[in-house]
Description:
alpha/beta
Amino acid sequence: MRFIVTLVMALLSFSTFAHAQTNEKVYTLSLATTWAEQVPFLGTAPATLAHMVETMSNGRLKIKIDSPNKHKSPFGVMDMAKAGQYDLAYTASYYYKGKDYKLVFFTTVPFGMLSSEQYAWYNYGGGKELAAKVYGEHGLISYPMGTTGMQMGGWFKKEIKSLEDLKGLKFRIPGQGGEVMAKLGVNAMSTPPGELYTALERNTIDAVEWISPVFDFAMGFHKLANYYYTGWQEPASEIQLLANKKKIDALPADLRAILETAIKAVGAQLIEQSTHANAEAWANIAKDYPNVKVQQFPSDVMAALKKAAIEIEDEQAAKDPVFKEILDSQRAYLAKVRPWTLMGEYGYLKQLEK
Length: 354
């Protein structure tokens, strides 16, 4: 993070000097975001990015932001950027698995890598090159712009004691996790964020998976459901800034460097913000909402979920050679990096329990 800040300051000094010497053209990029402004951090990240790039470029690069209440399609922003309706889209790529299943890998997959592992894979294990191949087919460039980390498994009105309790359950869960749940008889739904509380309140859904404590409490789910399950479906949860490639290629090299540096800085900030805010949010939950019970899914449910996840991935790999290439890359990297995660961080935490 210190390196990023230093680089930001260096670019700021350079761009200020350059602008003082020449009266250069002002470039404006339009951005459509999936999340409304009131969503913690995810809602404000685009504005932070816009402020940063304008400051660093001394006003030569601006970003105009439209939230879902303006563009009316929170899960359609990738298509808008692809079509050139917007230049940028701030979203999670797994929302678009119906258009291209390979996109799930660049957000997160069930039983996949943790955030630290996924970043290592992306930057040093071939992930960036694979992302360029996949998004290039859509005329887009994908920039990782922060992660919310491990996500919780969802809020349930009734306790899940066995696989039978999942049959027919109306559960809002997106991405590949939803497809895994569907294999076990769940009615998996992709309800838009703005409708989640009302849907849970009116029993349109029986359970909801959103993100983690600070995000979930802001939505009010703890007022409607007592059982809060730990996660398995989104261990990394990377957010993307998707950019129309033609628009980015048309930017001067220094402005493109400023944009890319700002994206990294805002992404690093999101990780820190969500970690801190989750700790703050959870600190008072026992006192303020003693009805909330943190649960883990039973072992037979977890085993069935993992089996279903592997089956889905293998089925997709048989249909799509590029999907298989990414799947093989992630599985191989996970086999390499997970022993260190277990020996390092997990080993430290287990030792403290003694």
